[in-house]
């Protein structure tokens, strides 16, 4: 009996030590990221593949030069990226041919890939010109959040769309997100008119974000997934609710659109580099009172997903850091 009690005491002490150690690690990491200086700060270098001359690198504070920028993070996407880019660029070219005001750029952010992703990306630059397709090289793997942040900060669009390299979401669904942002802008313009103010509002100056959503597919997914994956998904939703609050049902869909004004506020502050940066975006939208809407999009599961069960502990870790950082004021938000 005494040996059993001794084992229980040892387990209890071990659990307490582990809990304190984890708490200390979370606090340490939260303080380490408080100044937001751990990101890749070196400016990207765009190069014209025909002349090999460097092209000026824009910044999010510059005036918009294009109607829309599409930011695609790519990590070891040699095989999935070509099909997604072909579909995307064909769609963009069709719209540009029918509307002279529709100007675009596609920014591929190579997040330290070890395969031929860089080669594939530069082939599209050569085919479509550096004005329409650009590549940012991060050098080493930093995470999807960091790749998107880098692309957003060096884009030229009035509207900025992030989308995954696998082409899981139909590219023409971006019109749904566009229409929602234009509706928000129109509503703001009507408010200015009724208040007797100048109502000349550029779409890039309206702080708005639209989140593509797969929530309408959840019922079907619940019926086909393994029980433990459904359990983990529900648990993740609860943790997201505690960390960022309600408002967005599907935070993890990789199809999101921002106005230039919103992106300037959000991506200059974002600190999380990997999967949970989406949750941080929701939190920051609420902080800045950026208009948030969720729109259902067509989505197809593409083989080769990089999210797995091992991603769950990392997500929980990042959300714990985020919650502590913002709720205690350790992380300052700059406007």
Automatic annotation (TrEMBL):
Keywords, alphabetical: Endoplasmic reticulum, Glycosyltransferase, Membrane, Signal-anchor, Transferase, Transmembrane, Transmembrane helix
Membrane topology qualifier: Single-pass membrane protein
Residue ranges crossing the lipid bilayer per the database entry: 6-28
Residues annotated as domain Glycosyltransferase 2-like: 69-181
Pfam families referenced in this protein's UniProt entry, alphabetically: Glycos_transf_2
Domain of life: Eukaryota
CC per GO annotation: endoplasmic reticulum membrane
Gene3D superfamilies: Spore Coat Polysaccharide Biosynthesis Protein SpsA, Chain A (3.90.550.10)
Molecular function via GO: dolichyl-phosphate beta-glucosyltransferase activity
PANTHER family the record matches: DOLICHYL-PHOSPHATE BETA-GLUCOSYLTRANSFERASE, GLYCOSYL TRANSFERASE
Pathway entry: Protein modification; protein glycosylation
Catalytic activity: a di-trans,poly-cis-dolichyl phosphate + UDP-alpha-D-glucose = a di-trans,poly-cis-dolichyl beta-D-glucosyl phosphate + UDP
EC number(s) recorded for this UniProt protein: 2.4.1.117
Protein known as: dolichyl-phosphate beta-glucosyltransferase
Location within or outside the cell: Endoplasmic reticulum membrane
GO BP annotation list: protein N-linked glycosylation
The keyword Glycosyltransferase appears for this protein: yes
Family statement: Belongs to the glycosyltransferase 2 family.
